[in-house]
C-alpha cells in the first residue's frame, strides 16, 4: 500500500505522524411521545476530529516544527489529506510540542477539526479526489464527467491541466 505523506494546505509532512486517530458521530435526540414511548431524531453529523502524534527527526527537525507552527498561526481552514481518510476541509486547532526537545528530535501532537461550515447545506457537497501516478486534470475530467473548464475554476491554484502531480488534491464538485 502506498502511504502518501500527510498534507495540509501546502505543507507536506516529511515524515508521517506515528499515531493518527479519527472520530466523528451523529447527534441524536430522544423525543418522548405524548402517550408513552419515544422516538429518536437524527440531528446530523458532528465534525470529524483528526488527531495524532509524531516526531520530526534529523538536522531539520526544528525547521519542520517551526514550519508547522507557522501553518498553525494562519488560523484558516484548508484541505487536509491523510492516507486512508477522505480529504476534508479542516482547521488546525491544536499544536503541542511534547517533552523536552532532544538534539535533532522534536515530538509533537496535533488536532484538526473538519470545517463543516464550508459544506453547502444542499446536496451539492464539495467532492475531492487524490491524483494517482500519471494522472492529470484531463484524466479526472474524463473519469468524473466534469468539464476541464469547471475543474480549472474549482481549483484556481492549478496553473494548467498538466501541472499536477501524484498526491495532489483536486476539487471536482
- Indicate the CATH architecture of the largest domain: Beta Barrel
| Secondary-structure-derived class | alpha+beta
**Main β-sheet description:** 7 strands, antiparallel
Determine Rg (CA atoms, Å). Answer: 20 Å
- Count up the helices: 3
Residue windows where pLDDT falls under 50 for at least 5 positions: 119-123
CATH topology label of the largest domain: Elongation Factor Tu (Ef-tu), domain 3
Number of strands: 11
Oligomer: single chain
| Major beta sheet, strand line-up | 2-1-7-8-9-6-3
Count of domains: 2
User: Helical percent range?
Assistant: 10-25%
Mean pLDDT: 85
State the CATH class of the largest domain.
Mainly Beta
First and last CA, distance: 27 Å
Proportion of residues in extended strands: 35-45%
H and E string: EEEEEEHEEEEHHE
Summarize the structure.
16% of the residues lie in helices and 42% in strands. It is an alpha+beta fold and 173 residues long. It folds into 2 domains: 1-27 and 40-120, Elongation Factor Tu (Ef-tu), domain 3 (Beta Barrel), CATH 2.40.30; 127-173, LysM domain (Membrane-bound Lytic Murein Transglycosylase D, Chain A, Roll).
Amino acid at each position: 500500500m502506498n502511504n502518501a505523506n500527510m498534507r495540509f494546505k501546502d505543507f507536506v509532512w516529511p515524515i508521517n505522524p506515528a499515531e493518527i486517530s479519527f472520530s466523528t458521530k451523529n447527534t441524536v435526540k430522544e423525543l418522548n411521545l405524548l402517550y408513552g414511548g419515544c422516538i429518536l431524531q437524527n440531528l446530523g453529523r458532528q465534525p470529524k476530529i483528526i488527531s495524532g502524534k509524531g516526531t520530526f527527526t534529523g538536522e531539520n527537525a526544528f525547521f519542520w516544527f517551526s514550519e508547522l507552527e507557522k501553518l498553525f498561526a494562519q488560523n484558516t481552514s484548508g484541505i487536509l489529506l491523510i492516507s486512508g481518510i477522505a480529504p476534508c476541509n479542516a482547521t488546525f486547532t491544536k499544536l503541542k510540542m511534547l517533552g523536552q526537545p532532544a538534539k535533532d528530535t522534536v515530538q509533537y501532537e496535533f488536532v484538526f477539526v473538519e470545517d463543516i461550515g464550508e459544506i453547502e447545506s444542499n446536496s451539492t457537497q464539495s467532492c475531492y479526489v487524490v491524483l494517482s501516478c500519471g494522472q492529470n486534470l484531463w484524466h479526472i475530467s474524463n473519469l468524473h464527467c466534469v468539464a476541464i473548464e469547471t475543474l480549472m475554476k474549482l481549483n484556481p491554484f492549478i496553473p494548467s491541466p498538466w501541472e499536477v502531480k501524484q498526491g495532489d488534491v483536486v476539487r471536482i464538485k
